[in-house]
Amino acid sequence: MKLIILGKPSSGKGTQAKLLAQKLNLKHISTGDLLRHELKLKTPLAEKVESYMKTGSLVPDSLIIELLKNNLPNDDYILDGFPRSLSQAEELEKIIKIDLVIDLFCEDDLIIKRTIERRICQSCGAIYGLTVPSKVPNVCDKCGSSLYQRPDDNEETIKNRLDVYNNETSPLIDYYKSKDLYFLVDGSLQIPEVQELAMKKIATIK
Ligand code: AMP
After folding, report:
1. Is residue 111 part of a domain?
2. What is the CATH number of the domain that holds 72?
3. Does the active-site annotation cover 36?
């Protein structure tokens, strides 16, 4: 099964993709995580993408598509953060057949609050924030490592990321509706509720 999780930044894509991947035994492929890994390793690609990521702009298609192709497994997966534009969706269609696109809708004011509050475990990648704060501030409940804030999770950058979403990514809604692959979920619901709605829909395509 090949799934896409779509939505604005901080709509819960990463959290839901991780949960669905665990439940359904899928690989979780996040292009944002792949790019951050490149930055950590200071690879030649990192130099090319750093400025785009800092401002919340999309990195050029040629770079992101190659990165994705190099990291796509043969078995089932859920894509998180890709595609982010019509051109990327068209490229993807040349490579794989998608079974379902789950879109997590949230209003912008909730997105901004969630983004500013978001903290991530530097060791296991667990995500904390407005809905699920860590029990001890800045310490991961799961592994005890310290939490960090993404450099692009600030009020100025999130506004640009929302503009990028509206201009570049939101046309994907009609694109996938026209292909009868689109499923909308209210991303402001609690994490288990979002997951249940997504799981019920996935069960219908299995
Ligand atoms: P994310 O972790 O999905 O919020 O992505 C973080 C940043 O990585 C984005 O703001 C973009 O700069 C870049 N990025 C991630 N995925 C893509 C993509 N599919 N196309 C272009 N840029 C991307």
Report:
1. no
2. 3.40.50.300
3. no
